[in-house]
Amino acid sequence: MKRPRSSLARVGALVLTAGAMLGGLACSLVAGLDKLEFEDPPGCVDACDDHNPCTKSDCLVEGVCHGEPVVDGPASTEATGNCQKVECAAGVAGTTIDDTDVPDDDGNSCTTESCAMGTPTHTAKPAGDACTVGTSAKPGVCDGKACVAKCDDDGCDDANPCTIDSCDQLKHLCASTPLDGVPTPGAPAMPGNCRAHVCVVGVDTEVPDDLDVLPSMNDCLVPACMAGTLTLTPKPMGGPCMTTGGQVCDGAGACVACLLDAQCKAPQTCGGGNPGTIFTCGCTKQTCAEIGATCGQPSDGCSAMLSCDSGTKDGKETDVDCGGGGDCATKCAQGKVCKVAGDCASGQCVDGVCCNNACVGACVACNAAGTIGTCTNVKVGLPDPLTCVAPSSCDGSGHCKKAIGQMCAVNFDCGSGFCADGYCCNSACTGTCLSCKVTASLGMCINVPVGQTDANGLVACSSPNACNGAALCKLAAGQACTTAAQCATNMCTASVCQ
Q: What is the pTM for the complete model shown?
């Protein structure tokens, strides 16, 4: 707080001392001293309290605490009822006898409060004086020490459970016999507080009772009374319990669900969850990455399903979000890329795609453009890599046909439909001296060279005849002739074909 500076006299003296030199200025300073205010540092007043009723605490500007004398006279604060009074003089407390400062009533109506030469007294009233018993206002008689109740229609109950009350029929006064060492009659019971009420020489007294123990509401705490104080000792870790639905003690006084994973029902673990709670069974959900799944809806390890489809071909997948096994459990649909039968929902992986059937046989495929995933015949003129390798080609009806110039047995073997002279031919090639097996022209129906025979024509040309190279059968060399036109070589010399 702010207050006028306490050492104004000292400051004034300094100013007056300098008056001779300062003249009127000194007077101006003195005149303004009563307006000067200084702010105490926080806590200074309490810190420098000297507990002297004749001083007040203060704080100099320099921060040094000291007590300032209060105005001389009676102290503003002093004890009452001690038969004395305190007078202040120049900050020093002095005590004098004050017999009017009587002590407080001691509650005994058979004593008189007074002062004796500055000493508080409680003088006993003469025996036989009228009095009232305690706070009940029941009439009684002083016995030289205390007020004894008179016997009346209400009996002699002194409201003290630790006394046995009776009436002296000769004196018509009540008498009380104190009880000692027995439970206080009628005392309220508080089971489990480790305390008991007993009478001690007629006074109801609360004493320690280490047998006053109740079972704990917590299975993991063992209650006991020690010197009248309740103690709760935690049971060892792992002990069984049922409090709050738990099953095992944690060693710190709490009944918890678990300490070990084995105490939880799989797939839950102790402390499991996302996030988990210590000593609580919970299931920790896994992610697609954690279980190594790149597709499908596998279990998260708890009670829900994950969605692992990414819309792209990942990991070992054979097609987008399917196939590959292991990382991707989803089977690929018909027409999707595969490597093995296990990649496909149909169980058939043919020509690198999932097929509607095993697609077994020549000139059939499951990867034909426009019908991928369905087993169809290979188009006319195209090979089948497995059953009809070039130069052979398929006929569009599921058969592999040989190309022109390849050896054959029957017309059905050939893509052209013509098997002539043991070779697939470009035509039926049935004319005389026509052949499909001429070297350098295999498969092409051309004239049989000069001098060679043709046993396969509709009309055979065989020895002693030979072809003339123009699809005509003439006399072979060495045969008798009359004209050159008769000879295959078109040469007749000395009547012999040359």
A: 0.45
